[in-house]
Design goal:
The chain has one domain: Nuclear Transport Factor 2, Chain: A, CATH 3.10.450.50. It contains 4 helices and 6 strands; from the N terminus they run ααββααββββ. Strands 2-1-6-5-4-3 form a 6-stranded mixed beta sheet. β1 and β2 form a beta hairpin. The mean pLDDT is 95.
Length: 126
Amino acid sequence: MTASDFKAVGALMETYFEGLHQADSVLLRTVFHPQLAYVCATPGDELFLDLETYMDRVNGREPPAKRGDPRSERVLEIAFPGERLAHVTAQMSMMGRVFLDVLTLVDDGTGWRIVTKVFTYVPQED
């Protein structure tokens, strides 16, 4: 992949993290594909949602930024297994949990978009 692909995916991840921190569904819609599959793989809390249901959840939560929670995230891996396919592994803390996200991105011709968000979480230790 090209340096511009890494830069574009890095910028997408910054928008993703900021959208989650602000609980901003308008911002998050810029990084998610309309056919998003949202999957929680945490034992006992398995969940499968579409984009609209997930955005309703985002709209219903108090933003971590409003609560004064600091942003705490990092990209662990960006890989490009195909010309139009990317894989990102990221970690972030919010809402009292540490999340591990495995994201699949596709370049849909208009730019990179997240098509699957599969994640798990554990309680955040103080």
